[in-house]
Amino acid sequence: MQIHKQQMFNCNPDMTPMIDLTFQLTFFFMLSLNFSSDVQSDLVRLPISDIARPVEGAVEMPITIQTLASGMVLFGGDQMTAQALRGPLQREQAVLAGLAGRYRHGGTIVIRADREVPAGKVQEVIRVCQDAGFEKFVLRARPKQ
Amino acid sequence: MKFSRAGSEFERVDLMMTPMIDVCFQMIIFFVANMRLFTPEGDFNVTMPIAAPREGVPAEAQIPPIKIRLRADAEGNLAGIQMGQRPLRSLKELRGEIRQICGVDRGPTAISMAAEAQLDFDANLRYEYVMDAVSAISGFLASDGQTVIPLIEKIKFGPPGRAKGALP
Fold first, then answer.
1. Between residues 123 and 152 of chain B, which touch chain A (CB distance below 8 Å)?
2. pLDDT tens profile A6-47
3. B9, B74, B91, B98: which has the highest count of C-beta atoms within 10 A?
4. Could you give the maximum distance between any two Cα atoms of chain A, in Å?
5. How far apart are CA B114 and CA B120, in angstroms?
């Protein structure tokens, strides 16, 4: 029986395309990464507006209050009633009042309310914010696709 | 002069690609894990001054606020729109009225910048209708479908209204 001498192949795969792809993926995710501190809860389905456009520039000292369809308020990760918001908002206002410069006049209340919530509940939240000394409000909506 | 042959020999340098690829994969995993998909959101500014409006004769240049009332039915749906004393059929009509008042065709005018709208609504009206009204008052889309032409920028909510069917 004749045994052939086994041939050894030097297998060097071309790594260049894989590295290219890896770099492209890295850059894609780097550019897509959002470090924004915006508060967005999936529990809130925003109303849709045909003229709502993404915000240009940052809202000055935003304080986000989210109103769920049940009428409960989501603030700082806690669910509470609109009236229970009074204490935390007064604390926020006290902190803002202690800050020097432009923030002394208070922050901006960003209201993210569910489209199904009775508007009176949103008004109640606004009233509580007013009682705490806030005057500037921003109502958030989702742009129509 | 004698050159040594050994000095002219090229040495093959094998780069270790494995650590670099490892790092790249780790970066990809980091970015994938931290990726949060945000849907873009738009803002509408609402001014709600704390102080009560001053009594007396208003300044000559001050335009009285355009009062818009939204009525709700028992289910919270929009049942009627009223601008001043005049009933309107739809929010589209409301936008048309506001456009006429502001005289806006190609851009913001002095009236649109100075005018103020007060929105009153029943407490049980669904919030989406309020935002529809705010959109109708705030602006409209130009013929290109992209540019937003602003109408009234100063919007405020009236005092809280009663829910439909609620006791006075």
1. 123-132, 134-135, 138-141, 148
2. 667 777 778 788 888 888 988 888 887 766 656 677 788 999
3. B98
4. 100
5. 20
